[in-house]
Design brief:
Blueprint: E1 2-4, H1 7-19, E2 24-29, H2 35-47, E3 50-55, H3 65-70, H4 75-82, E4 89-91, H5 95-98, H6 119-122, H7 126-141, E5 145-149, H8 153-166, E6 171-175, H9 195-200, H10 202-213, H11 220-230, E7 237-245, E8 261-269, E9 272-281
Parallel strand pairs: 1-4, 2-3, 2-5, 3-4, 5-6
Antiparallel strand pairs: 7-8, 8-9
Residues 29-30, 36-37, 39-40, 148-149, 151-152, 175, 177-178, 185-188 line the site of adenosine monophosphate.
């Protein structure tokens, strides 16, 4: 696996892969990698002979600057975790490499209003920054396929919209959520939880499963209220639990309103913000 820090060098390897007729798979990450990321890379490698993984903690998507400062950076560990996956290139650029003309450039991509609900409400500007960096990375890597996790439901929905809207020549492949033994969705932020809270955080998945089990017996409002109450067990403090249409991300008032229904949530614990989701109705 080659470790590449500049756009110029990355383009050289991409050109070489293209000259050999290889399809290119791309997995953008912010590093502090775990088995969730690894599952994306392995899938990318099964479907494409040439795989690029980026590790870039994108400052423009952090509305909370202390979250940016605390974001774990573990390049040596990440490299060791990636080596056996068959990834061909680890792209590890600096901020000035990604934003040579300043980080306002390309920050105004149309997101169809999908950035105004849920995460967008609590993290203003987050999705503008996320879309900005994904677009910039897609322009550099020019992948045939882009791999993202269902873990960040709103994120991949927005990227899917951007790809459609800008008619980008990349297929988005969404990969399932990988969980810890107790059901907690793997996340780089889990490292910042105390051992006790991390153990207790299996509650989040249990609540989502309980909601799914009783979704035909209760109204949407009752399901949301039930989840918010159970997720208010200390040390957890829910920010939202929203049952929404999986395409538009608009709240639904009844399961009959839509063919694709997802429950999305954000919960605070130990000063760490955790997100998760479960598909209640699959199209
Ligand atoms: P991040 O490094 O957190 O920006 O995540 C990079 C990619 O990995 C995103 O597409 C995430 O949705 C995905 N991802 C993060 N956690 C998981 C997980 N537990 N299971 C599957 N994919 C994940």
């Amino acid at each position: 696996m080659k470790i590449v820090e500049t756009v110029k060098e990355l383009k050289k390897w991409i050109k070489a892969a293209r000259n050999e007729g290889k399809k290119i798979g791309f997995v953008p990450t912010m590093g502090a990698l775990h088995e969730g990321h690894v599952s994306l890379v392995k899938k990318a490698k099964r479907q494409n002979p040439f795989v690029v993984v980026s590790v870039f903690v994108n400052p423009t998507q952090f509305n909370d600057k202390s979250d940016l400062a605390k974001y774990p950076r573990t390049l040596e560990f990440d490299t060791a975790l990636l080596a056996p996956t068959g990834a061909d290139v680890l792209f590890f650029p600096s901020v000035s490499e990604i934003y040579p003309d300043g980080d306002n450039v390309g920050a105004d991509i149309d997101l169809g209003g999908l950035d105004t609900f849920m995460e967008g409400k609590f993290r203003p500007g987050h999705f503008k920054g996320m879309a900005q960096v994904v677009k910039r990375l897609l322009d550099i890597v020019t992948p045939d396929r882009l791999y993202m996790g269902q873990k960040d439901f709103q994120q991949f929905s927005i990227v899917a919209y951007m790809i459609r809207n800008l008619d980008l020549p990349t297929e988005l492949v969404v990969c399932p959520i990988i969980r810890e033994k107790n059901g907690l969705a793997m996340s780089s932020r889990n490292e910042r939880l105390t051992r006790e809270t991390r153990q207790k955080a299996g509650l989040i998945n249990r609540v989502m499963i309980a909601v799914k089990k009783s979704m035909d017996l209760k109204s949407i409002a009752e399901l949301e209220a039930y989840a918010m109450k159970r997720l208010s067990t200390p040390p957890f403090e829910p920010e939202y639990f929203s049952i929404v249409d999986g395409y538009t991300l608009q709240p639904v008032t009844s399961l009959r309103d839509s063919t694709y229904v997802v429950a999305c949530l954000a919960v605070w614990a130990d000063g760490v913000r955790l997100i998760d989701n479960i598909v209640l109705k699959q199209p």
